[in-house]
Amino acid sequence: MQRVLLDSPATIQVTYESDPGVVTADIYQSDGTLLASQSTGGTGTTRTTTLTSAQTASVDRLRVVWDSPELGQRITYVQVAGSLQPTAFITAQEVVDYLGRGEADDPGVVFAVDSACDVCRTIAEQAFSQGFSDTVILDGTGTDAMLLPELPVLAVTSVMEDTTAVTEYSLNGNGVLYRGAAGVDPRPVWPKGRQNITVTYDHGYDDYDFPDDIRMVALSIASRLVVQGAAAEESVGDVRVKYSVAASDLTANEIRILKKYRQVR
């Protein structure tokens, strides 16, 4: 999913496997309302269209339907957001419910939620949240296999070797993109080079299948940030509490859980 900033114009693009000819772009709001039907630019296999600030005036998930008489339709999802940072996968209300105290609109709780999710992403080296039509530029490996950075990979929509479309490839369940058709040997290879392979793909977890262990780690970190803050220990009267880790530190088990989701290299 491409992300664009609220109230800002943005250029969206799609890549076909061959020249699509004349392409129109229909832009829909999440409720199905058609915002615009407009022409596209671009040459070769790539087409672009520009979203106006009026079309990005509210937080929404837009659907851009690209229509080519020669090659049919392609769909790009666009998240209009107040920030280009990935969205949190736990909520402030969940932290409040977990602790049994506090208010969901407390700025400290909101900050703790965003920070906890960012820590999880950093350690796991994964965004986790869904991305549709995300484009990455990778180095060719010189072998028939190439790792896509975000898991799980839901679908690969286009692959380009420099400016040439690649149509024969296969994908396994671990985010490995193989060159050539499945079962055909000897397999061709991804040419070794710097930034010579462009892949557009869908990845990440939806709300219904988001890993519970990742959410639990984020919830635990956020709760510590709210309860402990910067304190290592606290005392009230004769009662003294010493925390096992700093609020921003992770336990050994939390690190184990997050590293489980790293892409295998």
Descriptive report:
This protein has three domains: 2-81, Immunoglobulins (Immunoglobulin-like), CATH 2.60.40; 92-128 and 207-259, no CATH class; 137-195, no CATH class. The protein is 19% helix and 37% strand. The protein has helices spanning 92-99, 107-124, 212-227, 252-259; strands spanning 2-5, 10-15, 24-28, 34-39, 46-51, 60-68, 72-81, 131-140, 145-147, 153-161, 164-166, 169-171, 176-179, 193-203, 233-236, 239-242. The strands form five sheets. A five-stranded mixed sheet has the order 1-7-6-3-4, with no helix packed on it. Helix 2 (107-124) crosses helix 3. The mean pLDDT is 87.
Number of domains: 3
Mean pLDDT: 87
Residue stretches low in confidence (pLDDT < 50, at least 5 long) are none
- Radius of gyration over C-alpha positions, nearest whole angstrom: 22 Å
